[in-house]
Amino acid sequence: MMTNHKDRSRTVNIDIQKDLFGANENAAKLNADIFKKHDIVAIDIMGSVGTGKTQLIESLCEHLQDKYRILMLAGDLATTIDADRVASHGVDTLQINTGTACHLDARMVRVALQKVNLADYQVVFIENVGNLICPAGYSLGVDKKVVVVSITEGPYMIRKHPLTIKHADIVIINKIDLTNVLEFDIDALEADIREVDATIPVFRVSSKTGEGIDKLIEALNL
Ligand SMILES: Nc1nc2c(ncn2[C@@H]2O[C@H](COP(=O)(O)OP(=O)(O)OP(=O)(O)O)[C@@H](O)[C@H]2O)c(=O)[nH]1
Ligand SMILES: [Mg+2]
């Protein structure tokens, strides 16, 4: 008897998203173990292009570098600009060029960590690739995920991109020194953040003037 060719044609559905995220979660756990073993506080800093991630890290380093030995990992598609900016403060940096990837993943971070002597550091700041969407789902194994939004992105970015807030531990509203010039309603922006997560800590900061940095440092337990 002939077998109907349809009986021979089978389909298997592979949830690539699930497999990718699952593998990344495992790699993130390994990173978390590595950080813990070396008593390192690791912080992932995410946010759209130009929100002030590097400026924030520069400000944090200025405040903290007398107290801690700091390493900055800079995720960037191709350049070393941000790593060089932070290195100019006398902080060790390591560039991770992601090529075409719009976010860091846990494996990239682990490869980078293998290039340094982790016993030399107490704090690791990781600047993720400038993008409010892609980095959200990829854990890196850090202690805290910080999202930087800034008032120069306009008033609607939280409503348009709520997902990153859902994956974050702390939100920073940066560039508050420009509030009057831009006639920006920060309370309304914070209300949008509260719509997504009613309890997430929100800090209003100027990475340029240093306003609000002390409170943020407290929240980071540094
Ligand atoms: N006025 C003001 N300008 C700021 C502040 N923070 C950052 N900037 C400026 O905003 C621009 C972008 O800042 P960056 O720190 O390069 O932003 P970024 O998020 O690291 O950008 P990418 O790495 O390209 O995604 C720079 O010209 C900064 O000087 C701030 O608090 N106030
Ligand atoms: Mg940057």
What's the arrangement of secondary structure elements?
Elements: H1 5-8, H2 16-37, E1 41-46, H3 53-64, E2 70-76, H4 81-87, E3 92-97, H5 106-113, E4 123-127, E5 144-150, H6 157-160, H7 163-166, E6 170-174, H8 179-182, H9 186-196, E7 202-204, H10 213-219
Parallel strand pairs: 1-4, 1-5, 2-3, 2-4, 5-6, 6-7
Helix pairs in contact: 2-5, 3-4
The structure holds guanosine-5'-triphosphate and magnesium ion.
Residues 53-54, 82, 127 line the site of magnesium ion (MG).
What features would you describe in this structure?
By secondary structure, the chain is of the alpha/beta class. The chain has a single domain (15-219), classed as Rossmann fold. It has helices spanning 5-8, 16-37, 53-64, 81-87, 106-113, 157-160, 163-166, 179-182, 186-196, 213-219; strands at 41-46, 70-76, 92-97, 123-127, 144-150, 170-174, 202-204. The protein has a seven-stranded parallel beta sheet with strand order 3-2-4-1-5-6-7, sandwiched between helices. α2 runs parallel beside α5 (106-113) and α3 (53-64) packs parallel to α4. The longest helix is centred in the N-terminal third of the chain and has 22 residues, at 16-37. The protein is globular, with a radius of gyration of 20 Å. The mean pLDDT is 92. The chain binds guanosine-5'-triphosphate and magnesium ion.
